[in-house]
Amino acid sequence: MPVRTIEAEPEPVAVDTGRTALVIIDMQRDFLEPGGFGAALGNDVSRLKAAVRPCADVLAAARRAGILIIHTREGHRPDLTDAPQIKVERGDPALRIGAPGPMGRILVRGEPGHDIIPELYPAAGEPVIDKPGKGAFYQTDLELMLRNRGIETLLVCGVTTEVCVNTTVREANDRGFRCMADCCASYFPELHEAGLKMIKAQGGIFGSVSAAAPVIAALVDLPSVTKPFATRWSAVKRLL
Asked: N or C: which end of the chain has fewer CB within 10 A?
C-alpha cells in the first residue's frame, strides 16, 4: 500500500498505509452513556459524544482502505481480581467498579455497559483488546498483534484524551511506534487541550495530532483541501 502524507501538528507525517493501524480507545457505553462509570463519577458524558461522529467517519475510511483496525475496552474480570484496590475504592461505594448499575455491573467484562457503543461496534474480524488499565499495552497482547502485522504507525482515537488515549500514545512511543492522535474527547475541555498539547510538544515528543478530515483524505486518497492547514485545523479541532 502507498505512502500518504497526513497533515498534522507539529508537522505533516508521511505514513506507509500498509503498516498503519487504527486503534479506537474505549468507546464504551460505561463511559459515553448515562448510568455508566463515567456518569457515576459525576462527569458530563455528553461531552464525549463529540468524538463519536469523527471516529465513525475515520473508522469507515479505514475499513474501505483495508488497514488493521483494533478496538479496546477497559474493564475487569467479574471477580475483580485484576482490579487494583486503589482503583476499586475510588468514589462512592455504591457507584464503584463492580457495583450494580443501569447497564449491569460497572466496568465489568461481559456486562452491557462494558461493551462498545453501537455507532462504533466492531465488524467481524476486527480485534477487540480487553485491558485492565488505562494504557492499551498494559497486560494485553496488543504489541504482539502489531508486531506480527508489521505495524509502524498508530492512528489513536477515542476517550478520554488525557487518560487512556494519552497513556496509550506514551506506551506506544516507548515501544517505537509512530503515533497520531485524532478524533478524541474528554469530560474536561481544558484537559483535552492539555492532553493534545503534551503529545505534540517539543517537535512531537510523543507523537502528532491531527483530525478526522486529513486522516480520511489520506486513507481514501482524496486530493488535499486547498485551505491552509492552520485554517482547517481551527475548524476541525472543534470535532475532536
From this structure: N
The string of pLDDT tens digits covering residues 2-53 is 899 999 999 999 999 999 999 999 999 999 999 888 998 899 999 999 999 9
Length of the chain measured in residues: 240
Q: How far is CA 63 from CA 15, 87, 139, in A?
A: 17, 35, 27
Evaluate whether 187 touches 48 at the Cβ level (below 8 Å): yes
Please report, as a single letter, which amino acid is at residue 225: V
Active site residues: 26, 131, 164
- ∠ Cα 24 26 27 (to 5°): 80
C-alpha span between 172 and 127 (Å, rounded): 18
- Find residue 16's DSSP bridge partners: 3
- Cell 516507548 identifies what position? 174
- Closest C-alpha among 187, 234, 194 to residue 211: 234
